[in-house]
Task: structure prediction
Amino acid sequence: MNKRELNPEASLQAAYGARLRSVREARGWTQEELAPRMEYSAVHISAVETGRKPPTLPFSRSADRAFGLVGTADTFERQFREITNGGLLEGFPEYVKHEGRAVEIRLYEVGVIPGLLQTTEYAATREADEVRREVATPEQAEERVTLVSRRQAKLARTPSPMIHAVLDESCVRRPMGSSTIMDAQFDRLLKFAEMPNTVLQIAPFAMGARRPFTLPVTVLTMPDRSIMSYAESAQRGHLERETTSVANILTSYHQLTAEALSQAASVAMIEQLRKGFQ
Result:
């Protein structure tokens, strides 16, 4: 039988299939011998190995049971989640689940427009550069752009969640793509500021040492009025539920909003910057 060559570097899905074949052959099993152990047909297993069929969560968990990988650090389930999460930072997918249910979202961002306020074109331009620098695959970039749209869609509900966004001045001064893309992004920010359930403020560079945060942070208020915060390092995201810690972050956020430009002044800055990009 001719054996189809696999290229695990082609995509995350191809890497999954190549590993499935490698682990199976290391056990000395044929696809027909693995089939009853996984409770999937040999044809199905072959399709996943060669990338003709994407893996699923049940399939991955079945493979982990068959190969004795349950509870280890290198499961097929973990690899599946890397595919479906598009290489997202560890901890972020869990945060997104809570974000979609929150009744209040308070966020502070540095350097880039936050995902909830991005246009699709802005998000795609940012991810295209990630691909260019080889820190993301095209598949990961596409999933991240899609996730931006999904996150925004989840918040378009009734009653609407309150969203208070404070952007460091660097967010609106950093070009991202063409003047057309930036013009549309500025328009998106201005429309966001007009919504009845939103507040938009710019934290100007002039705040200097009075700025309480140096990294992005988000505070969520859930339907039961509990609060949680989310922050990221270069390696992972961290969701904090401990009330005292989150309360301290919320206090700092209130101090930030007191020092930042008013919404009217923030809108005026964005309108002025928009003229410069045209």
The two ends are 62 Å apart (CA to CA). Residues 138-154 form the longest helix (17 residues). Strands lie at 104-109, 162-168, 198-203, 217-221, 227-232, 237-240.
